[in-house]
Amino acid sequence: MAQSYSARSRAIEPFHVMALLARANQLQADGHDVIHLEIGEPDFTTAAPIVAAGQAALAAGHTRYTAARGLPALREAIAGFYAQRYGLDIDPQRILITPGGSGALLLAASLLVDPGRHWLLADPGYPCNRHFLRLVEGAAQLVPVGPQERYQLTPQAVASHWNADSVGALLASPANPTGTLLTRAELSALSVALKARGGHLVVDEIYHGLTYGVEASSVLEVDDEAFVLNSFSKYFGMTGWRLGWLVAPPAAVADLEKLAQNLYISAPSMAQHAALACFEPQTLAILEERRAAFGQRRDFLLPALRELGFGIAVEPQGAFYLYADISAFGNDAFAFCQHFLEHEHVAFTPGLDFGRHQAGHHVRFAYTQSLPRLQQAVERIARGLKRWRADAV
């Protein structure tokens, strides 16, 4: 008898890059030197002070559940970070610690989206955002955006795409896969556009801290009622610890706490204790050195790819991605990625994973490898383009 699984599970699309990653890992196991530019994970291991704090927490027996909202000391530390970095006075009671940024998104989607209702999302964008909405029986209304909007939603886009089923918008600044930011003025204008329609504003600030030559503004500087998703994975380098947070309006906290109690009980306790070390001066100094390294990588890879013929119309100011137009080479991003993986052993991500708008014409490079490895990758890509053009003739 055939199994009958839920319609929602069938609607969740797989990551196309996972097939490429599996092949990359097989090539690596076969002895090939694969340069991984496909996965959005920093190559740096977690900073030593954070690891030491986690080890100390385990030794001290901090292995039990915490409160659903998280350790009070960690919520206070995050509030202190907002005061230091943004000049904001955020009540720690408004902060919920979650299992990764994904846990924060799950809470926000569960709270704000009824079946059949939707948020506006930029296309291209991070794919899990639309999948989480489908999981709660809502939907994502994808809004095509391009270089002219710096791949971000605008008040005009909100006005033209808003309808009776719209309940809010999810923004990302810096954005994945494009690395673009929204200015304080742009965040304010979007907040006004949504409030005029009774909509919720949710902002992914997961890549805050990883900006180059500019500091990212938090939406909380202009809208105290916005929902903010953040994570310890990117700037703080704690991907495998699975820890994030959500800042919510005071009126939403009780309902979010109830959801947290039921959905996951609490975030990992040892990770929470380890994260207390994130805000110590010695840790922040390490993280700032890493930010500078990412900036150097961007400043090398961006002009190198442009010189090879990749179209990168907007210089990314944050995250660690370059979203490149491959129209000069064709319109099948997946085949393009396969070519470079098989022949040059360089892995990067097809645009198909980030939406539908001109997805076949784009790929994403993650500059999460050392500068020498990026230099090797550029040499291989240059060589691979000659083979690609020859095969196309």
From TrEMBL:
- What EC number(s) does this enzyme carry? 2.6.1.-
**GO biological process terms on file:** amino acid metabolic process
Span of domain Aminotransferase class I/classII large: 33-381
| InterPro entries hit by this protein | Aminotransferase_I/II_large, AspAT/PAT-like, NHTrfase_class1_PyrdxlP-BS, PyrdxlP-dep_Trfase, PyrdxlP-dep_Trfase_major
Task: Point out the coiled-coil segments of this chain.
Answer: none
Answer yes or no on keyword Transferase. Answer: yes
User: What cofactor does its activity depend on?
Assistant: pyridoxal 5'-phosphate
Record bears the keyword Transferase = yes
What UniProt keywords apply to this chain's record, in alphabetical order? Aminotransferase, Pyridoxal phosphate, Transferase
State one Pfam family annotation.
Aminotran_1_2
Q: Which GO terms describe its molecular function?
A: pyridoxal phosphate binding; transaminase activity
Against PANTHER family, the record matches this protein to:
AMINOTRANSFERASE, ASPARTATE AMINOTRANSFERASE
| Name this polypeptide is given | Aminotransferase
Lineage of producing organism: Bacteria, Pseudomonadati, Pseudomonadota, Gammaproteobacteria, Pseudomonadales
